[in-house]
Amino acid sequence: MTLSLDLLLGFALFALVTSVTPGPNNTMLLASGVNFGFNRSIPHMLGISCGFFVLVLAVGFGLGAVFQTYPLLYNVLRYVGAAYLLYLAWKIAHSGPVSETAQGQGKPISYWGAAAFQWVNPKAWIMAVGAISTYTPLQGYFTNVVVIAAVFALINLPSVSLWVACGSLLRKVLRDPRWLRVFNLSMALLLVASLYPLLLESAGN
């Protein structure tokens, strides 16, 4: 049995809200739009959507159950993700001045880097597990997992592109190196702040 129209519409709303709201991916995309422009950030956007598509498939096909059986593996993955997030925050904080040329200081995150990041992104895991556990009927399960993953990726791409577009619009405003410095530091701090739920959960344990 395939997804009903009502369930699909409900899931589409879930995918839109979770994709377009602030999180590590969107914070980095906003900063990438400011520092590198829209076109140079396209591989970053595509990497996020494709990497997330594979992550949802993996969760739906049993990886989530593996982590439930071996929670240590999940904890290791989370802390690797936290460390990588701190590294990305450092890179954003030290981004160079806005440049219109490809030879500008620094490089945007690559397609493969963005795709791999989804595997250590806490918000991406929450979104993937929520989508599979809430919106995937058991009848025709494997087909429904593929549909869920595909629809999520299709909604995710235009959603994340809005953040790059906003960043690109801010490029002219942030030509002044002082304001760009303030912006990049703010984005880096927001990225670090996104780790708060992880730290809170760890403290509770």
From TrEMBL:
<dbReference type="InterPro" id="IPR001123">
    <property type="entry name" value="LeuE-type"/>
</dbReference>
<keyword id="KW-0472">Membrane</keyword>
<dbReference type="GO" id="GO:0015171">
    <property type="term" value="F:amino acid transmembrane transporter activity"/>
</dbReference>
<feature type="transmembrane region" description="Helical">
    <location>
        <begin position="182"/>
        <end position="199"/>
    </location>
</feature>
<dbReference type="Pfam" id="PF01810">
    <property type="entry name" value="LysE"/>
</dbReference>
<keyword id="KW-1003">Cell membrane</keyword>
<dbReference type="GO" id="GO:0005886">
    <property type="term" value="C:plasma membrane"/>
</dbReference>
<feature type="transmembrane region" description="Helical">
    <location>
        <begin position="46"/>
        <end position="67"/>
    </location>
</feature>
<feature type="transmembrane region" description="Helical">
    <location>
        <begin position="145"/>
        <end position="170"/>
    </location>
</feature>
<keyword id="KW-0812">Transmembrane</keyword>
<protein>
    <submittedName>
        <fullName>Cysteine/O-acetylserine efflux protein</fullName>
    </submittedName>
</protein>
<keyword id="KW-1133">Transmembrane helix</keyword>
<feature type="transmembrane region" description="Helical">
    <location>
        <begin position="72"/>
        <end position="90"/>
    </location>
</feature>
<dbReference type="GO" id="GO:0033228">
    <property type="term" value="P:cysteine export across plasma membrane"/>
</dbReference>
